[in-house]
Amino acid sequence: MNRNSKIYVAGHRGMVGSALIRNLQSKGYQNIITRTSSELDLRNQTAVADFFADEKPDYVFLAAAKVGGIWANNIYRADFLYDNLLIEANIIHSAYQNSVEKLLFLGSSCIYPKLAPQPLKEESLLSGYLEATNEPYAIAKIAGIKLCEAYRSQYGCNFISAMPTNLYGPNDNYDLQGSHVLPALIRKFHEAKISNHPFVEIWGTGSPRREFLHADDLADACVFLMETYNDESFVNIGTGEDVTIRELAELVKETVGFEGELRWNTDKPDGTPRKLMDVSRLHSLGWQHRTDLQTGVSATYQDFLRNQEVYV
Ligand SMILES: NC(=O)C1=CN([C@@H]2O[C@H](COP(=O)(O)OP(=O)(O)OC[C@H]3O[C@@H](n4cnc5c(N)ncnc54)[C@H](OP(=O)(O)O)[C@@H]3O)[C@@H](O)[C@H]2O)C=CC1
Ligand SMILES: C[C@H]1O[C@H](OP(=O)(O)OP(=O)(O)OC[C@H]2O[C@@H](n3cnc4c(=O)[nH]c(N)nc43)[C@H](O)[C@@H]2O)[C@@H](O)[C@@H](O)C1=O
Prior knowledge:
By secondary structure, this protein is α/β, with parallel strands linked by helices. 44% of the residues lie in helices and 15% in strands. α1 links the parallel β1 (7-10) and β2 (32-33). α4 (77-97) runs parallel beside α5. The protein binds NADPH dihydro-nicotinamide-adenine-dinucleotide phosphate and the ligand C[C@H]1O[C@H](OP(=O)(O)OP(=O)(O)OC[C@H]2O[C@@H](n3cnc4c(=O)[nH]c(N)nc43)[C@H](O)[C@@H]2O)[C@@H](O)[C@@H](O)C1=O.
């Protein structure tokens, strides 16, 4: 990829897509093309085919997807499966038809079996049953990995896949039904602090463990892989460290400065007990994350305070 390569970032208004744009621009890549979902619905096969034929991008970052936390994944099961299958199939097939030089597909750590050995090695894919709350989304993400592998083996396309752990950062989704845990906790603790509410409700038991990576680190890893990595095997992207949801809640509570009580709503699902990434493949390639969780949560709360009128 050189500084004048034509780069299509699909999903550029999202948390990951916007981080990719910041990272690419900071490295001097100037020829970036984007479309919002209202300009180009990536579920529309003809529209995607026309877009690729007109624009002929050299490189593609596939960061557009139907995304959400545990509740949204569990309720909108059809949408998470249908939208994601169509988006990735349309883009990957058009990338092949238009001789895209290289494509990076973003999967997720939820592709791994619920009870796979920890930390999760890339080799554990398809070795057991998936977590029920996000099975449709995980199946779509596994299909995306398999599309990249199949177009590589049948047509020689240089399509690679990266599997990020749970992410957070600027432009996250702060909708309390649809969001992931970290933005939900930031918003809940902030609103409880402002309104002097005595407690904050948190879902589940607090015992599940999760690994969190800042979106700017993820973007840096994706650009690194686009610049340097050309193998079929997908690559986990994470920190290699995790915390319990209870520990995360205590950290966000302290960061926000809320002094009330934590109340656990065990009617809400815990989801996977643990999903810690084995990041040895990524480390052996020469990339490591930079932002520790405390620093990242603090920066994300400051970003939330600056942009809360847009976010909520
Ligand atoms: N957030 C996380 O914790 C994790 C995310 N990932 C993966 O990273 C990628 C990016 O996620 P994230 O940035 O968090 O998600 P966001 O929800 O923040 O952004 C998703 C983007 O996808 C675009 N999009 C969705 N549907 C369509 C459509 N039908 N047509 C065109 N564009 C569409 C949206 O565009 P628009 O704004 O124009 O509507 C949006 O900007 C996804 O593949 C996700 O699975 C993986 C692991 C964890
Ligand atoms: C990235 C990943 O994200 C999803 O999986 P998840 O990791 O389970 O996602 P989550 O962030 O929503 O929850 C993490 C944990 O946190 C607990 N929790 C507490 N309180 C709140 C809360 O207020 N909101 C949310 N959302 N969770 C809460 C919650 O009960 C769970 O135990 C996948 O569906 C899939 O999309 C995927 O790949």
